[in-house]
Amino acid sequence: MKDKELIVELNSRDKKIKEIESKIEELSKNNKSSELKKQNAELIDIITNSNNVYLYEIFENRYIKDKNYFNDVDIDDKTTSKIENSIVLVNTILAGKNCSSQDRSMGEKVLKLRTNYLKFIELEKEYQNVIKEKSNEQNTANLVSKLDSLQFDLDSKLDKRKQEYLGLLKNYNKFTCELNKDIAKLLKNPKQDNPLVKKAYEDLKKNSAYKNYPYFIKILDKVKNNYIIYVENEDLPCLEKEETKPKEDNKEVQKTIEEKKE
Fold first, then answer.
1. 7: which residues sit within 8 A by CB, 6+ positions away?
2. pLDDT of res. 6
């Protein structure tokens, strides 16, 4: 056999070997796929049996039968642990063969609550930091936007807590200005050591508009204990915005002028 013919023959055989190897690889993949499908089916059977024997009763009692569950959930360490781990129970129920549409809908609602709850915990820490410092319009607006994005059942404990935080944040600047004015009035009294003046500062700390802001309490203590170091517009910067009246339309102005001439 000539060299040229030999090369052609070898190339042909090499091509056939590659084709055979490719078919072997494909068959291997198919066998693995079939094996995986079989193992997956067996796993789903095990999950379904576990749900039927152990887990579904817990799921049903906690989320379906307890009509107040979503209203009563609030932020505390014990609840947080349960909420964090709820994904294990819910995902197992959802993976079972006999998961009904009602179960699936409830499971998805629980997972959504879990997501919002865990976000709320992080935002609550941010909220506590914001009200410990003097009012900052940008920080407050950013936090309000984040809290607004959380979705809880209307009138639930979590929703009420969220609305409380939003109210305090949205009024932070307003109450800063009001406290600024209230302290200014008290500082007009030259006898700052007078027990009645001291009591007036304590009364401000109990005022419903101020008592939930740690920063206000700190400032009131500062003024009461040593009013000389209090710097009015630095400690309580008042950023009141003046209301601007809309400009009259040119046509309306012209009409008014003509009416006056008549």
1. none
2. 46
